[in-house]
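Dear support,

I submitted the protein below through the web form. The confirmation email said the job was done, but the results page showed an empty box. After a refresh the structure appeared. I'm attaching both so you can tell me whether what I see now is the final result or a partial one.
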Amino acid sequence: MSRIQTIFDKLKQHRRKALIPFFTAGDPVPSLTVPLLHALVEAGADIIELGVPFSDPMADGLTIQRASERALKHGVSLHDVLDMVASFRTKNVSTPIVLMGYGNPIEAMGWERFAKRCAEVGVDGVLTVDFPPEESHEAFAHLEKHGIDPIFLLAPTSTDARVERVAKQAHGYVYYVSLKGVTGAGHLDLSEIERKMPQLKKHITLPIGVGFGIRDEATALAVAKLCDGVVVGSRIVQEIENSTEQNVVANVSKLVKELRQAVDQA
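What the results page shows now:
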């Protein structure tokens, strides 16, 4: 059983929802990535999505774009991100880590080599934003071969056909994008999420996490009532951006503890 499935099974037993924070590896500086990972766990994260820096993050708004730029200025590569996960695993062998990013760095490394390295360092899932399920069978076959969960996005505009395809190919959980637009953009429409969930649940037996637009305790609580997991990215990255290297770990920890308390109210 994968670490991701284990976590969701445990949460379900206790009638709790998953808190899934995201930040970009190497932001604000590479030396703080592993301390931030441990701090997120201590603050209540169930699963962590770790962004792989990329020069053209098309699905991301300005906040996460700037995070990638800061990491890339320090020369952080996919190889470095995998090494960071390996370092994290020397102290934590239970918290699932999902790499989230774009196809180019993986294509450059090669999917077989990438998947093998993921398994070696303890990556649990991979979400590749620009690899739709129709085009990713061969690539994600390498992940499945090495026991890595391929995770897919669905959106408010997803058709029944797309939902059915994702239901067949995804493992771990499905990430529902709550907004039409990039990360950090727009206003969260809770009624749209509530309307969409039955359509998704009709086909998908995996847990469904909802992200994009969750910026505070109130929205985290409201979304947690509608799904299995709450993904918070831009708000955490914004906290990193507005902090100093000296207080960033403490500031992010405080934010995630507040989000944890909110999600647990659901």
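Response: this is the final, complete result; the empty box was a page-load delay. The mean pLDDT is 93.
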